[in-house]
Structures are given as C-alpha cells and as structure tokens.
Please model this.
Amino acid sequence: MGKDVEEFENKLSSFFERPVACVVNGTAALHLSLEAIGVSFGDEVIVPSLTYIGSFQSISASRAKPVPCVVDSETLTIDLNSAEKLLTPNTKAIMPVHYSGGVGALDEVYLFAKKYNLRVIEDAAHAFGTSYKNNRIGSVGDISCFSFDGIKNITSGEGGCIVTGDIEIINKVRDARLLGVEKDTQKRYSGERSWNFKVSSQGYRYHMSNIMASIGIVQLEKFHELSKKRQSLAKYYDKLLREINYIKRINHNYDQVVPHIYTIRIQGTNKRDSIRESLLKKGIETGVHYFPNHHLDFYKNTAKKPLPITDRIYSELITLPLHPDLKEAEIDFIVHELIEEINK
Model:
C-alpha cells in the first residue's frame, strides 16, 4: 500500500466529492464502517435478507446481530414498514442494500434513521455510478460502501471503499485497515513504514495494494464508457421483456441507475431451477441473487418474524447475463431461449 492507493483514493474523492478510504474488498468496507460507528456485541443492525452473505457477515464480524428484513416487492430494496416492526432498544444502524444498482426510496431511509436515531451504512456494492435525485450515490448521506471485485461496475481485481463526509469515520477506517497502527496511512503513502508505533484498538489486514489500485485507476478512467454500455444493454433487455406478462422486471430508470446485474422474476412457475439448467445447456449462464440469509444455518435464528414475501420473491428470481462485452444480438438469443424454456 503506497502512492498508487493514495492516487486512487484522490481520484475517487474527486468522483464522489467526499473523503474516501480504500480497502481490500466490499465486505471489509462494511465491517470497518460498522466498527467505526461503534457497533459491537449486543447491538442489532437491520438489513434485507435478500442480499449477498457479505452484508450479514460484516455485521456478525462486528459481534453484532444482523436482523433480517423483508424487501419491497417492486424495488427489492429494504421495506421500511417491516423494518419499523424490528426495532428494539439495541438497534444501532440500518443497512439498506442497493439491489442491482437501484436504491429504492432512499430519502425515506434517511428520514427513518433520523426518527429513530440510527446510523445508515449503505451497502452500495451494486450501485457504483448510480444517481438518486441528481446526486451520485456516495456523494451524500451517512456512509456508503462499494465493491470493486472482478464483476462490479468498475473493478480493481478485488477491492472496495468507504465514502463518507464524516472524517472521524475515515480516520478510524484508515487506522483499522492497517492492523490498528495509528497514522500509518500517511507513512505508507510516502514510501515509509511505522516501526515504533501505537495501537489502541482492534485492527485488521484490510488495506488495498498498489496493484489493485493501479487497476482501479484505469477502470475509473473508463467508467463513463462502461456505465453507458451497461445502461444501454439493460434498456435493451427492458424493451424485449416489457410486454411479457409472466416476467416481472425491476422498474429502474437506467438514465440514473448503473446496473450491476439484470434480474427478473418469472411468475406463475416453480420451475426456475430447471429453466436455468436448460439455458445452461444452450450456453446461457444465469444466476440467482440471492439465497435469503435467514435460511442459512449460521443466521437461521436471527429472523424475528417470518419473511414470506422474501421467500416468494427468491423462488422467482433469475439473473440474466449483463456485462460490457455483451452484444444486443446475444441478448436477442438469451431472451428468445428464455421465453421458449418458460413456455415449455
């Protein structure tokens, strides 16, 4: 970790117009953010169950309890009516997950947090470049965490970052990512190391490397091109699928949302998995984002209420290919074969 990481952080700070701290991955970003706001043993964090396991693991790594919440059936983002029923005196924060790049009613999330005196940590791993009410996600709000792994909107091979206007949080993260060695970041940036140092809190080996940052710098330079391609492809999917009544799309405005994935719901069938298998035989790889965390053995006792809406949505989900090298002709083929398999 040295001058390349500093350069990447500076470029990201210009992009977001806010301070940035880079780390080894998006889960580390969430973990360090939680600990920086003081989340610890006995605390609770409300989080949608329909998210990647990293969201939950970051909370339990902080020795707190993730409290699974249902998602809104239209946006697949956190349902605040359900979240309100999960509040206890131990609730410390809420973690909205920006599913597929969309953010749902983010203003309402912040009004909710203000009403109940909660910190907000946005899991924005899917939403790099997305705008909400003319503000880039990360440029406003409490704390936003991004992922730069190999398939995200930009990549550094692995990597992630924390963006916040709270400089105290940034300073805590910068120490904690370097095993808790205080003020080691600036020495690293100048090519030095701390040999006689001070450590007064738990730290982790979560720093970003120069190699990762170098990749990220080039990717950030290409982001305008990459984001426009993702948006264009998602719009093309929408055009082909809009009139098919048994397919439910997430109704994103792709002039504002930069999609990480393109997910649909196949309604009226319990054959989602066999459809995926048939598509794979035709060379079309699909995904399922995500298996609800409250069904995992490690988190099965965390749900305070049944989550039937989440369970139903999960059974319908299928993620179609979306990446900047995809061609419209390939999407034509994907959609044709998808419809054929559903009709069978």
